[in-house]
Design goal:
Two copies of one chain form a homodimer.
Chain A (H helix, E strand, L loop, with lengths): L6 H4 L5 H8 L6 E2 L12 H15 L13 H15 L8 E5 H13 L5 E6 L3 H8 L4 E8 L2 E2 L1 H10 L4 E4 L13 H11 L5 E5 L15 H4 L4 E6 L10 E5 L2 H15 L4 H13 L2 H26 L5 E2 L7 E5 L6 H10 L2 E2 L1 E2 L12 E5 L5 H20 L1
Parallel strand pairs in A: 1-12, 3-4, 3-6, 6-7, 7-8
Antiparallel strand pairs in A: 2-9, 4-5, 8-9, 10-11, 11-14, 13-14
Amino acid sequence: MENAFSDRITDVPKSFIREILKVTIDKSIISFAGGLPNREFFPVRGLQKAAHDVFEEAGHEILQYTNSEGYPELRQFIADRYRQKDGLDIPVEDILITTGSQQGLDLLGKIFLNKGDDLIIEEPGYLGAIQAFSLYRPRFSPVPVHEGGMDTTALAGVLRERQPKLLYTVTNFQNPSGISYTNENRHAVADLMQGRTCLIIQDDPYGDLRFTGYRKISFKQLLPDNTVLLGSFSKTVAPALRLGWLVAPRPIMEKIVVAKQAADLHTDYLAQRILHRFLLDNDLDTHIASIIRQYGQQKEAMINAIKTYFPANVQCTNPEGGMFLWVTLPEGASSMQLFEMAIAKKVAFVPGTPFYVDRKDSNTLRLNFSCSDESTIVEGIKRLGDSINQLVDN
Amino acid sequence: MENAFSDRITDVPKSFIREILKVTIDKSIISFAGGLPNREFFPVRGLQKAAHDVFEEAGHEILQYTNSEGYPELRQFIADRYRQKDGLDIPVEDILITTGSQQGLDLLGKIFLNKGDDLIIEEPGYLGAIQAFSLYRPRFSPVPVHEGGMDTTALAGVLRERQPKLLYTVTNFQNPSGISYTNENRHAVADLMQGRTCLIIQDDPYGDLRFTGYRKISFKQLLPDNTVLLGSFSKTVAPALRLGWLVAPRPIMEKIVVAKQAADLHTDYLAQRILHRFLLDNDLDTHIASIIRQYGQQKEAMINAIKTYFPANVQCTNPEGGMFLWVTLPEGASSMQLFEMAIAKKVAFVPGTPFYVDRKDSNTLRLNFSCSDESTIVEGIKRLGDSINQLVDN
């Protein structure tokens, strides 16, 4: 069947991270490679009780087919939270429950992208978005991000030369880099986007996991008609349930619902009801506070260990939240080569390469700090520092 | 944003059934329009206990991200069942858990169809498949099906003129028509497909719901390298969990996994674990036997009522299983017009039109018999008979 495949799938490479994670199955390896939330914080008892209770209350109903948009009361919870956290007034009809926020990316690609359409992606950018959009064969326009947000000079340059349909952003504690957009940067980006037909996709899986600083303005406030929000319960409750959401203006939502029906009819309704019950009976912010406390300490431990063990000419970001930080080696150093050396010392990370749409190697790497305790972090960074010294000395 | 949408979504009409189902929300209407399994048979207690038990046994594990292919032991259960029921020896690696079998259709469209590629679809055919495939903009070649299976003369004609990439079939108790392919018909179809690069998609959501007759041979036995199987727990356990599966030869599975990752990373793992626990602790065939008994009686009631109340020149199929039967009015009669008249008498069905890829009206209609008790069925068919007499007399 080899020659029968569609052009879109033939173009997509096998997941690089998948291959890397295979290496890290070895339990003796200290892995900063994963992108997982820390399982210690999964509310096992709370979800178990919620499951029991929804079966008691509505056993037959929660097992039947339901509407494609998702459980109205769960969508109401999400709307209430936007009001409370961001001062946004979002009607329930503008919210759709997705099978993880990953599905939101696929649906948006599906309803917007013709082959060759221009799409702005952050550089470095979220790998899952690159993969999802790649299937619709856009032309990627990468725009660099750094501490403080998107490079607006580069963005202005792209907007002068191209007519992008979509601008994909992870404005808080970005995956992979950990950077956040300042309010000034958000305003500057919005000013450049004003009056265009380009849609801003603001993907915010980590926004609630803020250790320091204050909550920033949403593009939905700045450009309400041209912004789609993606959100997720994967990092605040649990990822296995695959519960995310998408907020879109009415004309876009109509098309999204058609694509959603064709994709999976609706997202697991039992899971929606269990989660909603859990959210009624437990305070999400109290739960999140305990996650933040530990992730924040682990991030500090990693930053401090990097200061101690990495050569002075290696840079790293200092995220205000989330799960990742980003390391930049001296110009010309290969993070792919470093990966081989680090594995020999039994420490793993993800080389920066797959987070760019157009590179074969890079001097950057992503480190995850959510899944290792502080002493493991110190030991892992020490080993990684040794590997970097070895690489740079060569 | 109107002009910014992709060509593929602009081409897809709004769901017709969705609009019809809105009419039937009125509780005083007897509805044969839905496509739902009967909620009385949802194993509420069994799934509640399974949920409790998996949280006890593996609470943290079942809430974490997992692999895209799905829970190996659930896939093993599916493999064992194929061995037991069909004598098929399918390796676990060839099975992927999908977010409902609907997702299987989307993934197959995604990895196979370029715009304009030829695709054979049954006429009438499953609406969800027409919708899912439409997004990839194929050229549909409808081939009629009738009692006994696919029209092989018409199939041979299409194969002479076109180079289809996919042949989509629902071989048992088809949605919408209720027809099944005989063994002879399966062999005849397979003979025509032999030696071609065209892939047969055998979608079998209803196969286990057989009231009479015997299990038929699978295309997977006839053309193993060119057959993809889709299956679902929606009609045998419960649809809300959105748990289906896809069986594909290795080279196809590799591409499917890439598309699956991009679509939703993986299917709800909590749901997979709950279902697997339920299947370990309960005998699925015993459960299915109780469903079959009732659906079979309801189908008989509907067939008998049709004989009593419909004019003699109206035909209907007599399914050996499943949830639907198919009515053909005299030539030239409009099922859309009948729908309006029937709603006035407070009985609903789905006109045949949306099950064809190219018609604005038809003299056919789909009746669901899984969700109404026998006395309701008799009353509803009586009213529908009145409406048909009224229509035909006009």
